[in-house]
Specification:
Strand content: 35-45%
Largest sheet: 3 strands, antiparallel
Number of strands: 9
Strand order of the largest sheet: 1-9-8
Radius of gyration: 13 Å
CATH topology: Rieske Iron-sulfur Protein
CATH class: Mainly Beta
Shape: globular
Number of domains: 1
């Protein structure tokens, strides 16, 4: 499944949040005309990365059982429902899931993070 397959997938240019709100990981619901889209934004050494906030194991939000989804070493995102882990920089599955997180293209323009064109 790709992030664009979600019924509530936001269109390119949709504003998400001010970049100043993003520490290491930020969970946000993006309002669209078709509903709310669950998104995780991660600040990495390579820049901002974003993923649909849905573990590919059961499609529950990674933070469904609490906000602590970042590993102690800061290199992995972890599903609070069943412990699957994903590389923070790529979204690739590291353990406990059949595939990685769905990457969502984002960009920061004048301090506002928004959905980028593919």
């Amino acid at each position: 499944m790709s992030w664009t397959d979600y019924a509530s997938a936001p269109a390119p240019g949709t504003p998400i949040c001010p970049e100043s709100e993003v520490g290491t990981v930020h969970s946000v619901q993006v309002a669209t005309p078709r509903g709310s889209f669950p998104l995780l934004i991660a600040r990495t050494d390579a820049g901002l990365r974003a993923y649909a906030n849905a573990c590919p194991h059961q499609y529950l939000p990674l933070d469904s059982r609490g906000p602590q989804i970042l590993s102690a070493d800061g290199a992995r995102l972890m599903c609070t429902a069943h412990g699957a882990s994903f590389d923070i920089a790529t979204g690739a599955a590291l353990a406990g899931a059949p595939c990685g997180l769905d990457a969502v293209p984002v960009e920061s323009v004048a301090g506002m993070i928004r959905i980028a064109a593919g």
